[in-house]
Amino acid sequence: MIKRIIGLLIAGIALLILWPFYLIIALAIAIEDGFPVIYRAQRGGYKGKTFRISKFRTMVKNADKIGGGTTALNDPRITKVGNFLRKTKLDEIPQIWQVFIGKMSFVGPRPELMQYVNQYEGEEKDILKVRPGITDYSSVEFINLDEIVGGDNADEMYEKYVLKKKNALRIKYAHTVSFKTDTYILFKTVFEVIKKAFRFVFKKPSKETTAASNN
Question: Are 11 and 99 in contact (CB under 8 A)?
């Protein structure tokens, strides 16, 4: 109950501060690739109830019909604006509203695709006993997921090398949830997001890009 009250207050303040950024991002997406600007998809939620997670759309329209559910490295479905939003994690900020209305928490097991939730067994079912969150241990550990799954067969690589590890980290959170744990994950997430954004903004151009610009 205390966690819910704190989340409600912080989300309310954040929404009041961030609404201009919501408008700017929405306008940028609409100019590049039209509407809708929000992507919504079914995820496994609290107490096993499904809900529609919200993100700023970072891929072309109907991307789920073009490719798989896992984003590959340099996935061609990602738009230019979407690439920036993903690298800076700004695509996730619509979920602050979902924290405000109680569908999510700031910290909690990262909600998974239903095709994988339906396969939960044993302790994995404990993941659904905790309200899903914007970030958790698995979000921090796999913040560069696209680099891990690579550019080919992303869904297969995710299922084979990542899914069980992410579930183990989700279970770890569900079994150790506390104010101390949430605080640690929040600060760790902010640090990793800043580091990821810094890498994106100040990355060195590849040899191919440099050669092309000199021709």
Answer: yes
pLDDT of residue 202: 82
CB 18 within 8 A of CB 97: no
Q: Which H, E and C letters describe 170-205, residue by residue?
A: HHHHHHHCCHHHHHHHHHHHHHHHHHHHHHHHCCCC
3-state class of 119 per DSSP? coil
Cα–Cα distance, 170 to 175 (Å, whole number): 9
H-helix segments, 34-123: 63-66, 80-88, 95-100, 114-117
> Is residue 116 within 8 Å of 166, Cβ to Cβ?
no
Give the tokens for residue 81: 């604006």
Whether the model pTM is above 0.90: no
Residue 210 CA to residue 215 CA, distance in Å, equals 9
Question: Cα–Cα distance between 50 and 115 in angstroms, integer?
Answer: 12
pLDDT of residue 204: 56
Task: Enter the DSSP assignment of 78.
Answer: B
Dump pLDDT digits (tens) for 64-122: 888 888 899 889 999 999 999 999 999 999 999 999 999 999 999 999 999 999 999 99
